[in-house]
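Subject line: Sequence and fold of a protein, written as structure tokens
Enclosed: The protein record, placed directly beneath this head.
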Amino acid sequence: MAIVLQILTLFGALGMFLYGMTLMSEGLQKAAGDKMRSILASMTSNPFKSVLTGLLITSLIQSSSATTVMVVSFVNAGLLSLAQAVGVIMGANIGTTVTAWLISLLGFKADISVLSIPLMAVGFILSVSKKSSRKNYGEFVVGFALLFLGLTFLKDSVPDLSGSPQALEFLKQWTGYGFWSVLLFLGIGTVLTILLQSSSATMALTLVMVNFGWIPFPMAAALVLGENIGTTITANIAAAVANVSAKRAARAHTVFNVFGVIWAIALFNPFLSIISSIVTALGLPDPLSVDMVSLQNSSDAAAIAAGSTSVLYGVSFVHTLFNVINTALLIWFIPLIVKFVTWLVKDKETVPEDNMKLKYIHAGPWGAPELSLEEAKQEIVHFSQICKEDFMNVREAIHETDPVKLDELLKKLGKYEETTDRLEYEIAAYLNKVAETGEMSEESSRRIRAMYKIIGELESLGDSAEAIGRILKRKQTHKKEFDSVMLADIDEMLTLVDNAIDSMTENIQAGYMVIKNIENAFYAEQAINECRNKLREKHIASIETSGYDYLCGTYFMDIISELERVGDFIINVSEAILEIRRK
């Protein structure tokens, strides 16, 4: 029973560590999510900047998986090129080594659990603040405290192997097969990271095991290399339902890490010798010769401390040096990596109907709500482009005189109306899921509310296009035709509507962080209203002239009025974007 309780305590401590890591990462993503998006968008102009950006963001949010998923989602949304994404992923791999150093420097040197409870008190005080940014930082602080509290429980729940030599012998039998043992522990590190979905958690376990003498330093180094392969699975899972570009970004992460592990395994002994030289240069014992079990059975506290520091620093140096060297080698070959993953993940054959479906949203949210809203934004841009195509069909239908071709165009307008209905529903369903994923910043809440309004207005554009189709059908039934003057007037109005849609799409694409005013949309809507007034007066004046077909004129004005309504829907979209900035 005691063994079962000890095992459950071990898993519970690991769960606390993982939850703390997740809470800390998501808290900082919510507090600084938009800033991180700005950094990603502006600081990736060359490979070196991309690497520094990935390093910076991962060091802040303490999760390479979160950074990689963020990068994959941005590639999916078309905000980052594949080459930029590869550079950021390389930097993320270096940034994630900060976690190992935090654990090595703090987790085993001092009783961090003493500070964890006061930190939770600070985090709680911040979390009850009315200001959303303070709440998010409170979440970060609580996550940080839970992370180290979980690590403390993890250390305390590790069985005492000095009292159970049989368990030690069981482990040792797997370390005595030379290079095959290295490959075995490489595989264990990979599988463990896949199961835990966190290289940081596996790293924490590795540091605990090597510190207590469960495994020797070389096997711990092999575990670290395996963790670098296992951590790529998260991004590949996230990209499984994404577009081709996102899949390629995830594969690039795998290619980068697998290549690194291949050279590290091929040069395993020389690589460990370099690590050994660095650690001994710091005045510590050689980690390759440290026997933590023997040391812990001795009474020499200084020797135990020096040996512990040596193996912990050794494992941390393996993690850091591996990623730094790998990045230094492969940063020059980013274009080649891009070509390879482009060959590896082929482009899908596209059909015209594909453009009528969701393009960027393929599954549930990406994690933190702030991250998922970029997909929603790009999907709404795609939605507006479909509306632009819809009104190109409206123009064609107005000019069509062949009854058969007109019927085909009217069916197409009906299909577009169904498409806009479906897109509104699917994007709204996605936004509902994003809102349910967790507490979000006030700014993100305003974004979601604005997006609901925007997709509603875009759906109304599809309704208006179909309404014009019904007017044209009635005109056809009564065998009426617009004369050249009427067609020219409608074309003038349609051109203004096209300009307004372009302004609307430009504002959606720019987003609330860039847009300062909506003068482009305002002037476009004003031009539509003025044209409508001018054409209405012209219609009234024409009624009094002989030869003017009143019924045909009525259809003409019905179309003009509907196009004026379209202008109202369009300006509402830009106003909703601007409303996000207002607190």
User: Anything to note?
Assistant: Residues 2-344 form one domain. The chain has two domains: 2-344, 353-579. The first helix runs from residue 2 to 42.
